[in-house]
Amino acid sequence: MSEHYYTPRPSVEHDLHTIEETLRGRSFVFWTDAGVFSKKGVDYGSKLLVQTMELAKQARVLDVGCGYGPIGLAAAVLAEQGSVTMVDINERAIELAKRNAERNRIANVRILQSDLLAEVMDQTFDAVLTNPPIRAGKETVHRVFEQAHHVLVPGGTLWVVIQKKQGAPSAYAKLESLYSQVEEAERDKGYWIIKAVK
């Protein structure tokens, strides 16, 4: 199987460069590299998730599969009096996310290498955000939903972006089996933003 971004240690040669993006009205500059998800620019699904998600200013937020950081860093700006924990299995993504937090002067973040939520299962969060690693398979994606349910406070919210053709209907059904309230918060260009409340 060819290597992809859902790997602890990408071996593909580095191709470090910066991209500029505007998320929720704020300009960001992100370092990106080969071997990480959506390296040429923030993908449409992540942008739609950032545009749709609702976070309280004091929220404790978890970004699962943070990549080089666009969702988590945008969340940290929204939850300015709270904190965001960003996790990814890919060590190259983690290094980039740390650099990007610094580059964009965002201090209310913690960035950890973690296989899904393994490193944070003993913590609690008000919201979990994920553009899940579809290429890692349905079982892995559903494990994200289960582990997110475990770490969310009662009434906490999971925000998921997933393409219809990549399993949005089955993801929705899985979420309905776990969460007390599930709704489609947004739908555009084949992407669904699903909001699930514990």
Automatic annotation (TrEMBL):
Keywords: Methyltransferase, Transferase
InterPro entries: RsmC/RlmG, SAM-dependent_MTases_sf, Small_mtfrase_dom
Organism listed in the record: Paenibacillus tyrfis
Stored PANTHER family: RIBOSOMAL RNA SMALL SUBUNIT METHYLTRANSFERASE C
Pfam family, one: MTS
All copies of domain Methyltransferase small, residue ranges: 29-195
One GO BP: methylation
Name of the protein this chain belongs to: 16S rRNA methyltransferase
Claim: Transferase is one of the keywords in the record: yes
Gene3D superfamilies assigned: Vaccinia Virus protein VP39
Single annotated GO MF: S-adenosylmethionine-dependent methyltransferase activity
